[in-house]
Specification:
Elements (H helix, E strand, L loop, with lengths): L2 E8 L3 H12 L4 E5 L12 H6 L1 H19 L15 H25 L3 E13 L2 E8 L3 E10 L3 E3 L12 E2 L1 H4 L8 E5 L3 H12 L3 E5 L11 H14 L2 E3 L3 E7 L4 E6 L5 E6 L1 E4 L3 E3 L6 H4 L22 E3 L10 H15 L13 E3 L4 E6 L2 H6 L4 E7 L4 H6 L5 E7 L5 E8 L2 H13 L4 H6 L8 H11 L7
Helix pairs in contact: 1-9, 3-4, 3-6
Bound molecules: flavin-adenine dinucleotide (FAD).
Flavin-adenine dinucleotide binds next to α1, β2, α2, α3 and β3.
Length: 475
């Protein structure tokens, strides 16, 4: 006999598992289905984020940053280490252990919140008056019945046309996170978040990294001044980034990969590398969901069509996260998951797309919220800008990391903060203050008048807010 639930969530990535927990907190009987398998074939909830995305990439960024510090920066602190070596297998094993801690944590949270977890692929079997039948194909095939269904099936890496990922020479994020040795030469196609983060990891470990980018501008979505500052730092580190290229034929052989491309001047070139990471974006994933069986509407990109509140075209079916429109970010997926669970409970779930923070965890880190200077210009908004360099921040000097700046953009008339952009140490943490400020519609002066701990990097945030009114105290 089929088991009946109030809410069935398909997918246990950050969108799905958080939706399941919130729905259970609100008193619903909840099932969550996820098909991800760990190396032993067991369940590995957490989705792309936990298994091959946010978490493992940050684990490797941390390990490689330690390595770089030990090699190049310990000496200035008076620490001598002799030759520093990297055991790649150990680094990968540590990353796998971090991933497992997160998988186990989610299974624990399901138990704690009484969410029934099913390991396998969930698909729509049929719709009936007042609900849906969901088939689970897994270790133990089951049929579940639910009044409400939340689809959170995430996304998959986009391959170059005609060049499939073999995860040996041509790597997606998955292969890029589990290379067994440092490649001598690494090519990356796409200088977005994933390309830059993965390129940084392997460059720090000794690979000669070349990133090919089709667009003529570096990090077009980032504030131009911030992107320029970041590019300067990456150039100095030896991360080669070629913009405005057109990738042609990609060939793989025993020795590696060759990539034919035309550079920005139109000159034909050949890049040879041991490995190639393709990071040209991700595509929404509805594989095996059997969306057709119930008439679930997809758009031309394959994303599930939803309204502003994540409602699909089917009554009682919702969709959140990477499988729908909007930024492909774990925290956006989570916010949508919470909001949908609350809407099902008749509450007013809310996601503010204007205050979703963005972070690139390179060194220096890049983080921002709100509009960039170029967007404000394009929108014809009168604004004031204020910047403060980390070079003039005492904590940054003590850390030995003075690259970058904090930049505020505020409305010229009302002083309301319209955007905050950071490149520099711990930008990922510093941006939270800006998000809170923007959620509360704070002015630049509000931040400038708040007491910030000394010495802290957050003083650069306060000073950048002061700079909007041209009254920095330390610069
Ligand atoms: C290398 C990399 C680094 C990243 N770093 C960051 C970062 O630092 N910060 C950030 O915010 N975002 C980051 N992201 C993006 C982030 O991982 C995604 O935005 C996020 O995982 C989306 O969450 P989701 O719940 O929508 O989907 P996913 O995390 O993709 O989860 C979907 C889940 O659904 C399961 N599933 C799919 N179909 C079915 C089915 N029919 N039945 C059962 N289960 C199914 C999948 O197995 C998967 O477990 C990164 C991504 C990559 C690739």
């Amino acid at each position: 006999m089929s088991q009946t639930f109030d809410v069935i969530v398909i997918g246990a990535g950050p969108g799905g598992y958080i939706a399941a927990i919130r729905a259970a907190q609100l008193g619903f009987k909840v099932a969550c289905i996820d098909e991800w398998k760990n190396a032993a074939g067991g369940p590995a909830p957490g989705g792309t984020c936990t298994n091959v995305g946010c978490i493992p990439s940050k684990a490797l960024l941390q390990s490689s940053e330690h390595f770089e510090h030990a090699q190049h920066h310990f000496a200035e602190h008076g620490i001598s280490t002799g030759t520093v070596k990297m055991d790649v297998a150990k680094m990968i094993a540590r990353k796998d252990a971090v991933v497992k801690q997160n998988n186990d944590g989610i299974l624990y949270l399901f138990k704690k919140n009484k969410v029934s977890f099913f390991h396998g692929r969930g698909s729509f079997a049929r719709a009936f008056e007042g609900g849906y039948e969901i088939a689970v194909a897994g270790d133990k095939p089951e049929t579940l019945v639910g009044k409400q269904v939340i689809v959170a099936t995430g996304s998959n890496p986009r391959a170059l046309p005609g060049v499939a990922f073999d995860e040996v020479h041509v790597l997606s994020n998955d292969g890029a996170l589990r290379m067994g040795a440092v490649p001598k030469k690494l090519a990356v196609i796409g200088s977005g978040v994933i390309g830059l983060e993965m390129g940084s990891v392997w460059r720090r470990l000794g690979a000669e990294v070349t990133i090919l980018e089709g667009l003529p501008t570096f990090l077009g979505a980032v504030d131009e001044q911030i992107a320029k500052e970041a590019k300067k730092a990456f150039d100095k580190q030896g991360l080669k980034i070629e913009l405005g290229v057109k990738v042609g034929e990609v060939k793989t052989g025993k020795k590696g990969v060759s990539i034919a491309y035309t550079d920005a001047k139109g000159e034909g070139k050949l890049l040879e590398a041991d490995k190639l990471i393709v990071s040209i974006g991700r595509v929404p994933n509805t594989n095996g969901l059997n969306a057709e069986a119930v008439g679930l509407k997809l758009d031309e990109r394959g994303a599930i069509v939803v309204d502003d509140e994540c409602r699909t075209n089917l009554p009682g079916v919702w969709a959140v996260g990477d499988v729908v429109r909007g930024p492909m970010l774990a925290h956006k997926a989570e916010e949508e998951g919470v909001a949908v669970a609350e809407r099902i409970a008749g509450q007013h779930g809310h996601v503010n797309f204007n205050t979703i923070p963005w972070v690139i965890y390179t060194s220096p880190e890049i983080a921002w919220v709100g509009r960039t200077e170029q967007q404000l210009k394009a929108d014809g908004v009168a604004y004031k800008a204020g910047t403060f360099p980390f070079l003039a921040n005492g904590r940054a000097r003590a850390l030995g990391d003075t690259t970058g700046m904090v930049k505020f953009l505020a409305d010229a008339k009302t002083d309301e903060i319209l955007g905050v952009h950071i490149v520099g140490p711990m930008a990922s943490e510093l941006i939270a203050e800006a998000v809170v400020a923007m959620e509360f519609k704070a002015s630049a002066e509000d931040i400038a008048r708040i007491c910030h701990a000394h010495p802290s990097l957050s003083e650069a945030t306060k000073e950048a807010a002061l700079a909007v009114d041209k009254r920095t105290l330390n610069f």
